[in-house]
Amino acid sequence: MKPSKDISRLIEIMEALRDPATGCPWDKEQTFASIAPYTIEEAYEVADAIGRGDLDELRSELGDLLLQVVYHARIAEEQDAFAFGDVVEAITAKMIRRHPHVFGTEEERAAGAEPGFWDRVKAQEKSAGQREAPAGVLDDVPVTLPALTRAIKLQNKAAKVGFDWPSLAPVFAKLHEEVGELEAAISDRAQEPGSGGRAQIEEEFGDLLFVMANVARHLGIDPETALRAANGKFVRRFRHIEARLAEEGRSPDRSTLSEMDELWNEAKAAEKK
């Protein structure tokens, strides 16, 4: 078995790995459910490579993500449900169907991508029985999405039927309101330690995050991307603290908060320059 640029080689490799007699013991035991977490993880690693601008790593991570598709397709084929070719056919059919301004008739191409055409095509698919129509506006937003991403999708769905703030100003007003309610919940628990107010604090904190997601949506910002960037910035600056302390033969646990804060500001100033 040799590497190849042909997708059929990857399919052959997966078939060999899953072979009941000669395959890999670990690969043979996997199911849709056991592989699903890896699929999600690989998608995040693709996003991470993009965020870091590392194209060599992106090539590798896209391969890992493609492997997940081949893996799921192979398990499905073993159950006589569908094969990799069916996955390819389904997505190519969908892309052609959802882009009439590119692949449609001469009239459709001339009309171009009119506002709302994507939603109209999806609605036609549902009415044609290609996909069961959801019972409610929010029902087709997957529960398994990362919470911030799901918040944005829920808000977008509601906004399409008119349930949305008209501008950013009332969103900020709601943000201040939620901050006040969180502070009140924390204060109430402090005044009555035995009241068991943790659940209330958690609820108010969740409400605050939900409004922050709405702020991001109104600004056209992906909150997951923004938070990943903030995480990366924190790591860079903390590593600067560790490196500077190491020059003095010390570590963070052997320094004061004041000293580390000063080094944090030093790293911050260096980044701005």
Properties at a glance:
273 residues; mainly alpha; Helix Hairpins; 72% helix; 0% strand
How would you portray this structure in words?
- With 273 residues, this protein is mainly α.
- It has four domains: 7-95, Helix Hairpins (Orthogonal Bundle), CATH 1.10.287; 98-127, no CATH class; 147-221, MazG-like (Helix Hairpins, Orthogonal Bundle), CATH 1.10.287; 225-272, no CATH class.
- It contains 13 helices and no strands.
- It is extended.
- The model has no long low-confidence stretch (mean pLDDT 91).
Topology diagram in text:
Blueprint (H helix, E strand, L loop, with lengths): L6 H11 L7 H5 L2 H21 L2 H24 L5 H14 L2 H4 L2 H6 L5 H11 L19 H14 L7 H24 L6 H22 L3 H25 L9 H16 L1
Helix pairs in contact: 1-4, 3-4, 9-11, 10-11, 12-13
